[in-house]
Amino acid sequence: MIICTPAVVGVVATASRWLPVTARIVLRDTARNRTSAAPAISAVMAAVIGTLAIGVITGSEKAYEQTLSSMAPGDVFLSPIGSDGVVDETAVATMQSMLPVNKEYEVDEPTCGPACFVYPKQTPEQVCPYGQNSSIVPEHEQRAALADPRCVNTRRHATYFGLRSGGNQVYVVQPDAVQAVWGIPAGDVPAASAALRAGKVVADDPTLVADGRIRLGFAGPDSHEKEVAAAAFTTPNPGRVPFVLMTQQTATSLGLQTKQLGVLATTTRMPTDEEADRLRAALGQTIQPYVQKNSAPNTTMTLLAIAAGVITIGASAIATGLAATDRRTDVNTLAAVGASPGVRRKLALSQSGLIAGLGSVLGAILGVGAAVAVLSAYNQGLASTWPTPEPYPIVVPWVNVIIAVLAVPVIAMLGAGLFTRSRLPIERRL
Contact at 8 Å (CB) between 241 and 160? Predict the structure, then answer.
């Protein structure tokens, strides 16, 4: 595209007939001297391409991480360090005093004895028949699994309270914690909470429930393929990640033990890094706090945007200065025929706007387009493999795009107008 920049300038110059006189002069001069204007436009374009392409990919990566997390942005989870650790009331009070906490919920996990954990079992007719006994799935089985609806969610992973794990984890919570822990739609919360109060196990995966019951398997050294069955309720819509929930009373009635996993806290705003660091220091080495961040731009993206803006303004300023030197004869002619003093400043404004605006628009189109193409191709490649991971969402940083396309060129134009003398030169006649 950089090679084609002179041709693009020529095409844009064809629109000069509909523009004011000063803009028409600038466009036609730039088209005639495109070999000198093209490098400045290309510099602006390259800076914007890099910044926006990185912004799209970085934003998509952060959004991808968020789609795999059980926690909403701003949530805080306190987990004990060590098998015998516990998050006590003192730790919760410390968190309340240091973070903008809204409400806390204890999260436990059911166990079936020492080194024995509980997991949900799919109904026999819904079990994916491929890749059950090997981590490496042959290509012909991958193709068959992709076409089998029973294998859609097989082997998918998610991040539960800051820890990467397989899907459909089983946890023990109180009924009022459904919305905070699970994140299902608000309209589904009353029914799910009522089911928990009624002693049912609640899930969002219909392949786990048959005839209103769910099977919970035991995995441990002495489990010997044991399992228990319980009354179940399936939510019509999924939550942030796959969950299976029950209450303490239900776990006890099934003969299960429970162990504290930690304490989840919702907040009124996103905790700052300084607040999280102070909390981490106050809790010491016994409790680990985890803060779920959102996909806000980081410092690196801010620095890249600033660098792109500086390059854009600098390139347009240099090109405007060179064009003003080349246009001195035309300015003298305008002065001779009685042009107003503001013409010189309008020429500088138009020249700077053309360089910065054209470079920014082309850079935004190419930068966003290139990043979207890369992510789409990558997602297409993921879709042809099994187990199929979650695709990367395409997140366009529209604020950055607007700043690059509108704000930076306007700043460049204002700078050109501010530092350009409006008085037309008067040539001495002999």
Answer: yes
Task: Looking at the structure, tell me whether residues 203 and 239 fall in a common domain.
Answer: yes
Helix axes 21-32, 342-383, angle to 10 degrees: 60
What are the pLDDT digits (tens) for 333-363? Answer: 555 555 555 666 777 777 788 888 888 898 8
Q: Are 98 and 271 in contact (CB under 8 A)?
A: no
Q: Residue 216: which H helix or E strand, with range?
A: strand 213-219
- The total of structural domains in the chain comes to 2
| pLDDT exceeds 50 at position 430 | no
Is 384 a domain residue? yes
What residues make up the domain containing 197? 76-88+103-265
**344: part of which helix (H) or strand (E)?**
helix 342-383
Q: Look at residue 172 and give its three-state secondary structure.
A: strand
Asked if 82 and 60 sit in the same domain, the reply is no
Note whether 142 and 239 are same-domain residues. yes
Would you place residue 91 in the very low, low, confident or very high pLDDT band (cuts 50, 70, 90)?
very high
Could you tell me if 233 and 201 are in contact, meaning their C-beta atoms sit under 8 angstroms apart? yes
Question: Does one domain contain both 384 and 407?
Answer: yes
Q: How far apart are CA 6 and CA 411, in angstroms?
A: 24
What's the pLDDT at 344? 66
Mention every residue, 6+ apart, whose C-beta is less than 8 A from residue 331.
Answer: 324, 343, 344, 347, 424, 425
29 and 162 co-located in one domain = no
In a domain? residue 429: no
- From CA 164, how far away is CA 120, in angstroms rounded? 18
Compute CA 175 distance to the chain's CA centroid, rounded to the nearest angstrom.
31
Q: Does the residue 44 lie in any domain?
A: yes
389 φ, ψ to 5°?
Answer: -75, 170
What's the DSSP call for residue 177?
G
| Mean of the per-residue pLDDT values of the chain | 81
